[in-house]
Structures are given as C-alpha cells and as structure tokens.
Amino acid sequence: MAKAAIRMKNAPIVGTSVPRMEGRGKVTGQARYVDDMVLPGMLYGATVRSRIPRAKIKQISFGPGIRWNEFVIVSAKDIPGKNCIALIEDDQPCLADGIVNHPEEPLLLLAHPDRHLLPKAVAAVSVEYDPLPAIFSLEESESLEQIIWGADNTFKSYLIEKGDVDCVWQNADHIVEAEYTTGAQEQLYIENNGMIAAFDPEQGITVWGSLQCPYYIHKALMKLFAFAADRVRVVQMETGGAFGGKEEYPSMIAAHAALLARKAGKPVKIIYDRLEDMAATTKRHPSRTRLRTAVSKDGRILGGEIDFTIDGGAYKTLSPVVLSRGAIHSGGPYYWPSVRIRAKAVATNAPPHGAFRGFGAPQSLFALERHMDRIAQAVGLSPVEIRRRNFLKPGQTTTTGQTINEEIDLDKLLSRALELSDYHAKKENFARRNDQASRKKGVGIASFLHGAGFTGSGERFLGSVVGVEASANGSLRILVSSTEFGQGTNTVLCQIVAEALGIAYEDVSIAQPDTDEVPNSGPTVASRTVMVVGKLVQSAALGVLKTLTASGLLSDSYSPEEFRAACRAYTRKHGKIRSLAEYEQPEDIVWDEEKYRGSAYAAFAWAVYVAEVTVDLATYSVTVDDFVALQEVGKVLHPVLAKGQIVGGVAQGIGFALYEKVVWEEGRMQNGQMTNYIMPTSADLPPIRVYFEELGNVHGAYGAKGIGELPMDGPAPAIINAVEDALHVSFHSIPLLPEDIFAALPESSAEPVREAGGRE
Amino acid sequence: MSESPEGQAKSDISFTVNGKLETVHVYPMERLLDVLRHELRLTGTKEGCGEGECGSCSVLVDGTLVNSCLIPALQAEGAKIVTIEGLASDGRLELLQQSFLDCGAAQCGICTPGMILASLHLLEKTPEPTLEEIREGLSGNLCRCTGYMQIFEAVAEAGRRGAAT
Ligand code: FES
Ligand code: FES
User: Fold this and answer.
1) ipTM of this predicted complex?
2) Would you say the C-alpha torsion A325, A326, A329, A330 has a positive or negative sign?
3) Which of A1, A27, A57, B44 is the most exposed place for a label (fewest CB within 10 A)?
C-alpha cells in the first residue's frame, strides 16, 4: 500500500469515467458472442424436453419422416461419468433417466449439420409417460401429501434468532401481521443462452459460451465426464446480459453440447431460441413472506417473527444460497431487539428457480418495506417517521448479530432522498387533488441495504485467486475468471491496476476468461467482483511493483516511462512477471454457520428510493412518473458505469413490480415470448434519477462496495407503497397488474376497500 | 431457427450491403437476419427474440428501419441494406457510436447494434430530437441492461454533436 501512495503523479484514474474496455467492439458490432462463432465441421444441437411435470418415462420412439441416421443422438446412457450437473448437490440430472420431475426437463439431445432440420426432428420424437402426481405451489409442497424431493420436500431451512422474541407480544401496543408474495421473474437478457463444445480424445473438452461462472461449468464437466481438471477447458465469449440467469444453467447447456460433440466427433453448437430459454432456464424464486411484528405505541419495533419461504422448483440448484441471502436481508436496515426468522426453500414440479440479481433479497425486502407502511398505519405515524424510529445506527446489531461499524446515517440518507424527490410537497399536493381526480397520484419510499460478497464464510471457502502479469513493453494483463456481461468488470478492474501502479489505463488489459489461462477468482455473482476481486487485483498489481523494486530496477517514486523500462529490464533477465494474490478473510469477519450468527457480509450498501406513480382509474394501469435512487455504495470507482448499474437495476425492479408476470400451467411457463412476457420499454420508464453518497469501505478496493444487486431491492416496495398512497388500498403481491387493481377496487371506486391480495 | 426448408429450392438473391453488391444462394423464405449472419458472416446484427419484438436485429433496408428477423431474403432482392458493420467502415467511430461509448449506452452490448441503427434512423429524420422523440423513436428496441437513460443521453448528445450531418 505504501508504495502506491508514493508514486501518484498522474491524475487519479479510479473515480473517473474512462472508456469501457470492450466498448469499441460493442458499438461496432465486432464483439464476438457465442452465436457469432463458427468452427469447421460444426453441427447444430437441440434438446428434446419433457412435456409434463412428473412421470416415469415408459418409452421414447423416433417418428417417421426423419432421416434419423443423419442425426447424432445422445441419451443418459452416453454419459461417461455421473449423470448430474454438479453444483451444491448432485441431484439434478444432465439428462433425465427413466423419470422426469418438471416440464422442460432435458431427455435427449440431437445434432445435425443442417440447423433447419432440427425443429422438425425434435417434434418427431415421441415420449410415452406414466404420469405421477405433481405439485405446483408452496402450500402443496408444505402439505407433504406428495413427496417429490428428499424426505420432506425441503431443500434447505434456516433459523435465525436474536433476543427473546416470545416475551415481546404481551407488552406490544400493536401487533401487525401480514403476508406478502412475489412472483417468478425472468432475467430476460437479450442474448439467449448458447454454447459451443469441441471434443478431442487427447485434450478433452473445450466449451465456449455465454456464461457467468467458468469454474462452475468446469466443475460440472469434470464430474459428468469423469475427467481430470486439465482435460476440461471453459472459455467465456462476450456475454449479452446475465443478471444471475447465466450463473448455473450454462453448465447444463455446456454439458449437452459436450456430450453431443464427443459422440459426433465434431464441434457442436447449441443456441436456445427465446421460447426455449424462457421456458426451460431458471427464473427468480417465487416467494411468500409472513411477518408478525410487535410494535410500541411510539412506533418502535420490539420484535417479530419472519417466515420466508421460496419455491425452488424441482431440484436444489442454488436455492440454499438464495434462501440464505433472502433470510438475512429480511430484517432490512432496521434495529430488531429480538427476532426469529424461519426460512425454507421447498420443492415443486417446476423447472428449478435460480439466481437473479438480488438473490432472494428483493423478495424478502419487498415484504418488509410494504410491512413498514402497514406498521406506520397501525401506529398512526407517517411512512417516513416509522422508518426514522427504527433505522439501524452505528454500534447496533443486525438480525444476525453483526455490529454496524461504519458511520452510516440512514436518517440523513432518508432526508436527502425526500428532498431530492420533493416528497413532502408531492405528498400533500396529491392528497389534496386525488379526491376529484380519475388519475390518482401517490409517492412511496423504500429504505434498504444489500450485503456485498458471499455470505458469512463463503469468501473464505472460495479462496479466490487472481493474477496480474507484466510483459516486456510495460503493459499489464489481469488474469481472473470474473466475467464481463455488461456491468463493467473489465473496465473497473483495469482502472484499479492502473491506479495501483500509477500507469496509464490504456496500458492495462484483461485476459478473456479461459480456465486454461486464468486462476479461479470465484463466480461473478453477489456484487463481489469490485469489492473482493478488485481488492485482490490491487494487491496482485502491487506484487508486480514489489518484484520490480526488490530487484533494484525501480525506486519508490517513478514515472510511467521508468515503470516500462523496469518491466523491460526485468523480463529480459527473468521472463514475464506474474503476481498472484489469494483471498484472506479479514479478522473482523466472524461467522457461525451453525447458528447463522455473526458478520454476514464484509460490507453493506445502503439506499433510500422514492417512487412517484399515477394510477389511471380508466385503465387501472400504474405509471411510474419519477424515481429517485439515492445510495451509499462506498467509493464510486466509475461514475458512468455505476449510474448505469443503478438505472438498469431500477428498470428491472419496475418490471418486477408492475409488468413481468410468468403465467404458469402445471409447472410450465405459458408466456415464454417477448410479446406476452412484458418487460419495460423505453416508453414505459420514468426519469430515473441516481445519486450517490460515498462513505468508503475498508474491505474493498479503493473503498468500493458491491453495487450490482442493490438497485433491484427497492423499486418494487417503493412503487407499491406509492400505489397505496394513491388509492388507499394495500396490495401485498407483485407483479401488480391492472387486472389486480381492477379486482381490488369496488365498482365505483369512490369508496375503496382496504385490503387486497393478502391477509392481515 | 427458421422453418424447415424441405421442399423449397434455393435461389440467387442479390442486394447491396454496406455499399457492396452481394449475391447469395439461399432459400427464398430464409430470414434476412440469417442470410446476413450465416451467409455473409455479418454477425454484428443480433437475434434477441426472432419475432419482431426486441429490435436487436434492426437493419436499414432502403433507408427504412426493419427487424431483419421478420423479412424473408426474397424481399431484400435489389435493396440497399445497412448493418452495423457499415458504420465506422474506415476504422473511425461515427459520432453516434462515440456518444454511445461516452455516455455508457452499451452495457452487455447485445442490443447495441440494433439500438445504434434505430438511433441513426431517428437522427436522420430528426437531427436534434427531444427526449420524447427519442423515447418514441427507440421504443421498438428493447434493452435489459441500461434502463435506457444512458441511451437517451447518447442519442441526444449525438444530435447535439451533429451526428446526422
Ligand atoms: S430478433 Fe428480430 S426483433 Fe427480436
Ligand atoms: S446493453 Fe445489454 S441489452 Fe442493452
């Protein structure tokens, strides 16, 4: 660290908006995504999927009219290793073998040189089933009438306890109780999933694809093929959006392409079309949160019980970790003297649900932030005041007993958000004119937090490694498995190295993630890249510097030219400089995995969002008219990228709240097209106004915290709170569509009912 | 993926792409998108939905903005087509592309070629568009990453810099 401080003659690079590393390729159409890649002799692959939710497979037959001998056909029998997609547990098969547990479960793979022939061939495969009873809701799963997974349909449960919650009820002035639900949400990255695999008997498998986590795929393929690590290579192509949706399912597609490639002896490309991608791949977990809170007459939370349940679909996949994050965030940015959080992920016969930006937190925070407004009403305080009275303060502990050590002032953050959004004036104004109006307006707030990095000891278990290389011409190259899929990973990591070494941003580059070349810096998830990986990249860069100074080639203060000369001199003598850095858990992060207590996250980002809406009583539609997003995310390393992350997340949050509804029938998505699954267009969004506070963070590179997921947490509750402000009707479920509003309002909406879509 | 072409015969279709005359031998009902990507290896044009909803496959055909996933190759006979590869062809970024970079309008980049062509089309009709005009003009192009704000800024900025002239 000391060295870095001495050199800085140049203007700082961190904190400025340098050009996006791979930006030029993206604006010229030269950036290469997996579907842009063609290998000689390549075949095209397709997947035959189950049409029903749960059954024994009696027989598979190949119908007439297809020259089957031209096709490469792969079934579970062709799997050389274990038939599973290794992740947390090995319960999800790569190809169904005798039994299916959800619609769209992969059964069989086909490949052919002419991609035009595949759809017809897939349709010509007929499967005879022996149907088994299937379940589709949390309630059916909990009833245990049908056991479809393990002994009790439960993938994972957690219990978080703080204080003695059982004694708070008798002294409570108010007990406020309600249930909230959120629906599945499709990530809807614009680039569909895709993979290319090549197989060589000597070298093993190589896959290129659209993906977030190269080493997840690496691990899955090793097990599937029973291969040693050096016979599997995974390369990330430019990736057209992910948002969590390409965290785990790409392992499945890579496995399929690799099996076909092995059998065909030729490379195979599998590209999903939109319908297949929507129907078969993971979505945000549907959730149900029951909150019961004891509150004093002056509006202080005395304690509460939170039951958080998510629908994991048919296999375990990532549900335990999504559940964990959702459970830990369910207490929000408030002080709970006592609390009992029961969290559970259960099985249904739907395709497995998975990671989506926020990872459980948007679900539980929706419930809590709606509930805070309910508490305010019960006590007779404003939504603003109820939050002020309960905000966590430095020195207090979270629901897991983590002491807040940073100087966060949520009161001040809230005040600033109210000011920026002109909240009070709007509130008054709307209340005055709403009575007469058929377009009713409201404002709503949400205050929340988001933990950066893996939960608890997760980072320690990952033990991420990064590398930085210096070459003879003085240019630096970063080696990480962290992936770019739009967030700006490449750019920010290069900024960090340039800043650490006092060299030009243009002299730093980043290797394409390729497991043959880059060490495992962990998955690109959980808002961990800038904070955790960034910090490691910084120390690896300083390792390069140390090598140069220790060899006497560079003094403590140097110019970029001297740095280049030193690299040249060093590499001539000793070859390339390669510096690695490995994660070490900071001492102040202590976590008890058994009791689920301690420091859940190295840092939290904090935020207050304010939404202004109009509800049109002629169409029952809600429009968001203005949106203020104020957050404290530590040091902002790249203002343009940071703003882009927030605006993009808010837009997805607006979709989550008001537009994006997955229509299910027997576990299968019915609206898997962009024409009937509706995401916000440019005409649907309000001005999204983004503001930052910068407190810094001792654990992150240059004081950065995670930023990617935070903006997903706040929009939905802020918007539904605003709808309540406009209509005086309390909605407890999202997405909230016009038909839901119509159903909740009485015929003449002069006298609105008080409750809808839940119970209290 | 397009329909099975069995029973169809391939034929020669000629058109101009980015100023260059091309003749391709394809099924007449093949999507223009596939012809550009597979036959001509112009992979800057992207597929997002294949049903005319997302605009990632936007190209200009005789000056009109079209979704190339909806156009059969046959219909392009004799047309003048501009794809993303037709911009910055001398290696220098166009003003509009530069604005996209400066304003952070490209995140994952998959919608970007289509977005840029839609913006170009808008700026040709309306050299200095208002925010409302930009919103409307781009409403056929979906972007999941940016929430659009920085795209609006880029187009407004390009307008101010005189991209249309
Ligand atoms: S791919 Fe053509 S509009 Fe989406
Ligand atoms: S930048 Fe990713 S979809 Fe637009």
Assistant:
1) 0.96
2) negative
3) A1
CA dist A283 and A604 (Å) reads: 25
Helix axes B112-125, B149-161, angle to 10 degrees: 40
pLDDT digits (tens, 9 = 90+) for A706-719: 999 999 999 999 99
**Which tokens go with B76?**
């392009």
Atom of ligand 2 nearest to the CA of B108: 2
Q: Which ligand is the nearest neighbour of the Cα of B57? A: 1
What CATH number is associated with residue A420? 3.30.365.10
Evaluate whether residue A308 is within a structural domain.
Answer: no
Which residue puts its alpha carbon closest to atom 3 of ligand 2?
B143
Q: Which residues pair with B81 in a beta bridge?
A: B17, B61
H-run or E-run covering A174: strand A174-182
A118 neighbourhood in chain B, CB within 8 Å: 1
Give the three-state DSSP class for A723: helix
A24 and A57 inside one domain: no
Helices and strands (H and E) in chain B: how many = 5, 5
Give yes or no for residue B119 CB within 6 A of ligand 1. Answer: no
pTM of the full structure: 0.96
Which residue, chain included where needed, has tokens 């409403």? B139
A688 and A747 assigned to the same domain: yes
Other C-beta atoms closer than 10 Å to the C-beta of B97 total: 28
Let me know whether A568 and A611 are in one domain.
Answer: no
pLDDT in tens, A504-561: 999 999 999 999 999 999 998 878 989 999 999 999 999 999 999 999 999 989 999 9
Is there an atom of ligand 1 within 6 Å of B57 CB?
yes
Please check whether residues A100 and A210 belong to one and the same domain: yes
What is d(CA A667, CA A101) in angstroms, rounded to the nearest whole number?
A: 10
Q: Residue A1 above 50 pLDDT?
A: no
- Contact B86 CB / ligand 1 (< 6 Å): no
Fold category of B95-161 in CATH: DNA polymerase; domain 1 (1.10.150)
Mean pLDDT for chain A?
95
* A438 and A468 co-located in one domain: no
Arithmetic mean of pLDDT over chain B: 94
Residue B109 CA to residue A31 CA, distance in Å, equals: 8
Would you say residue B5 has pLDDT above 90?
A: no
CB A264 within 8 A of CB A236: no
User: Ligand 1 pocket test: which of B36, B69, B71, B112 has the largest number of ligand atoms within 8 Å of its C-beta?
Assistant: B69
| Fold for the domain defined by B11-86 | Ubiquitin-like (UB roll) (3.10.20)
* pLDDT average, residue stretch A482-502: 96
Cβ distance B144 to A115 less than 8 Å, yes or no, reads: no
Residue A477 lies in a domain: yes
- Residue A253: closest CA among A198, A204, A193: A193
Contact residues, chain B, for A644 at CB < 8 Å? 104, 107, 145-147, 150
Domain span including residue A197: 40-133+188-280
* Cα–Cα dist A232/A225, whole Å: 9
Specify if A718 maps to a domain: yes
Q: Report CB contact under 8 Å: A25, B109.
A: yes
Name the burial class of residue A337, with classes exposed (0-12), middle (13-18) and buried (19+) by CB atoms within 10 angstroms of its CB: middle
Residue B115 Cα: closest atom of ligand 2: 4
Residues in chain A within 8 Å Cβ distance of B43: 29, 32-33, 35-36
Distance (Å, whole) CA A161 – CA A170: 19
